[in-house]
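Hello support,

Our group uses your service weekly, and this is the first time we've seen a run hang past the timeout. The protein is Potassium transporter. I'm not sure whether the cause is the sequence or the server load. Input pasted verbatim:
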Amino acid sequence: MDLESGVYGNPVKKQSWRTILTLAYQSLGVVYGDLSTSPLYVYKSTFAEDIQHSETNEEIYGVLSFVFWTLTLVPLLKYVFIVLRADDNGEGGTFALYSLLCRHARVSFLPSGQVADEELSTYKKDGIGPPDTSYGSKLKSTLEKHKVLQRVLLILALIGTCMVIGDGVLTPAISVFSAVSGLELSMSKEHHKYVEVPIACVILVCLFALQHYGTHRVGFMFAPIVITWLLCISVIGVYNIFHWNPHVYQALSPYYMYKFLKKTQRGGWMSLGGILLCITGSEAMFADLGHFSQLSIQIAFTLVVYPSLILAYMGQAAYLSKHHMIESDYRIGFYVSVPAILAAVVGSQAIITGTFSIIKQCSALGCFPRVKIVHTSSKIHGQIYIPEINWILMLLCLAVTIGFRDTKRMGNASGLAVITVMLVTTCLMSLVIVLCWHQSVFLAVCFIFFFGTIEALYFSASLIKFLEGAWVPIALAFIFLIVMYVWHYGTLKKYEYDVQNKVSINWILSLGPSLGIVRVRGIGLIDTGLVSGIPAIFSHFVTNLPAFHQVLVFLCIKSVPVPYVRPEERFLVGRIGPKQYRLYRCIVRYGYRDVHKDDLDFEKDLVCSIAEFVRSEKTEPNVGSVDLDKDDEKMTVVGTSSTHLEGIQVYEDDENPAKMAGPSELREIQSPVKPKKRVRFVVPESPRMDPSTRDELRELMEAREAGMAFILGHSYMRAKRGSSLIKKLVINAGYDFLRRNCRGPTYALNIPHASTLEVGMMYYV
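Update from on-call engineer: The timeout came from a worker crash unrelated to the input. Re-ran successfully.
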């Protein structure tokens, strides 16, 4: 299906109120499920063992005051009003912030960057110019000079990403397990401990099995459940306030936080790990931004979610202020009255969706092994499903549930993951304020000092519970961090080897137009990561085989640090050597959120872009052309076939150019040879076409009719002699294991297996 048509308007064009409200409705079922279900376990985790109730109610009032101000300052003030504005062309998450910084401070580790990429319309935002402050320019130059600082920035972004994945494991476990714990009322404790875990596991399996239906369907299905849930906890909250303790609103004063810490001291500080759970899911607002829109998420939180949660926590505090026996009365006051299990299932959806999004970004930017990415919506480009990650999350989630069987330890683990992601976001945001927004360093320091202090307090309270469950997110993050860094390191080393061993263009020219071999009909696409020069794989192939295709295209499919590339800027096309060589270079640029098209559409767009380049090479020599560095050829920006309707068009088999050509005067170029597959180029009548250009187009058309072959390099990497033991371990064992077990480039590029030829090469790096 053609996904590209619905991809690019979403972040750019102004949306109608109907669309915004529809997205706000869907976001309730996807983004806010986790945040909305936190009342299931916040008070229970807080009063687990560190603090106890007293007749003065200072503890419960203090906890309510902490919950209120934490919800107000972190999700509402920090995320809704500040962080959501730091979107990367409509996309959010840790890697979106990192991508912004890469573009504005040139700290990207993407090896195939070009000057031409900076001309992309999505590369810069409106109003961005040189930094306004001397401190800002000093910070920028410092980051650009020191590779160590760039590596620290990358590791910081990867840590945030790994903790999001860890949260994707822990949040479903604690949400579902907490809800199932409410069933304890209807059965004896002896029966309950044998039933609780299996029920939770069955619910988790069903939840992950639903993911392949996509965010769009899941959002519409889950949104009514979340709305019902929020309505229930709001009504119950209001009832509890008026029935049990109408004066509970006094606890909203910050004074009660001071009284709480003064009385409970170390126990109160340690209990902050439980209070922290009231903001689990806040990061999902930013991570899932690409699925919805900034305004829709702000409306849903400010008008629906935030007031409901405040009423729910106040109601619970009012109830508990009159019922100090939390073990028996807490559950009676809460679980019986609401559809807790359904709400918990929904609560897990937000973080699972966010995990898919962030892994897609990492994979596109070369920081995660290639995985299968299924786009579940033809209209909204951010809505994806990753089967491998889905089932890995499910297995880890089941392992945590079976291993812990305890809400308290799950809460400790989840809390640490949540607060670490928030700390990373705060650090990256402070850099964005200076480098991207060009605000004063003082403002950035205030931001990191204010929010960083709050989050550091919660982080310290969570870290102290290391042996009581908090080790789990650290262990998970460490494993995923190693995987990401090993893959990133191996990818960089492979590219460096390609650059150092590329073949000189003079070598190609010395072979003559036939390249010293027999040129057979067809198009040969040589896959390469290089944006300039001839890859070593080509010389390896030519010296071992006596024949090659009449048209050769060096194809580089690369990611750029923007969320998406507009179709009219998709291709960079250039010529290698003189015309009669029929050698072309085509660089296909994708953003980290882009949809890779089906192989047939891609082939057609590729041929059309080369044909349009050939046609416009002399008639429009200066339009869209970009001069690249060193020995590289001149490249021209060419869009997909759907974006240059007045230029050349390609029609294959049964397509009728008379119906599809458009208003301009067109004429056909047809092949004199009767092909298996009929291909026609329809070109504008004027200006008059050069005979050599016409011959070149006819030859290209005949080659397309004969078919395409994809030549892929199958690289085996080994550390060269004299390398350190760590490097040998990383390259020979780590990277090699990941390469053999991830999706191969054949799948990643949507290439049909029957047309693929792999050439093996040994890389010593």
